[in-house]
């Protein structure tokens, strides 16, 4: 799992990270108009240490950047993401 995270982060952003421990696990279920399950994702967020590189978002990202806690209120984040970042930052 850590190797997959490191590879994906590099492919999608151009930076090298060392993936560490899981910090959050959740599932996301997408349903069709009739309520039947179309997709069921299990998402595992890992912490990571920045090693080197310059952020260069891939074609699947509009933008990427580094943001301090003081700028989080300016970003379009879900409530769950805000809660997670607040918990991790304390």
Structural commentary:
The protein has a single domain (2-89), classed as Nucleoside Triphosphate Pyrophosphohydrolase (Alpha-Beta Complex). 26% of the residues lie in helices and 36% in strands. The protein contains two helices and two strands. It has helices spanning 2-13, 79-89, and strands at residues 16-31, 37-52. It has a two-stranded antiparallel sheet. Strand 1 and strand 2 form a beta hairpin. The mean pLDDT is 89.
Protein topology:
Blueprint: H1 2-13, E1 16-31, E2 37-52, H2 79-89
Antiparallel strand pairs: 1-2
Please indicate the percent range of residues in DSSP E strands (runs of 2 or more): 35-45%
Total domain count: 1
The total count of helices amounts to 2
CATH class: Alpha Beta
Any low-confidence stretches, pLDDT <50, length ≥5? none
Derived from helix and strand composition plus strand pairing, the structural class reads alpha+beta
Rg over C-alpha atoms, rounded to the nearest angstrom: 15 Å
How is the biggest beta sheet arranged?
2 strands, antiparallel
Helical amount among residues, as a percent range? 25-40%
Spatial sequence of strands, sheet with the most strands: 1-2
Oligomer: single chain
> Which CATH-level-2 architecture?
Alpha-Beta Complex
CATH superfamily: Nucleoside Triphosphate Pyrophosphohydrolase
Span of the ends, CA to CA: 26 Å
Overall strand count? 2
The ordered H/E elements are: HEEH
Shape, per Cα inertia axes: globular
Average pLDDT value?
Answer: 89
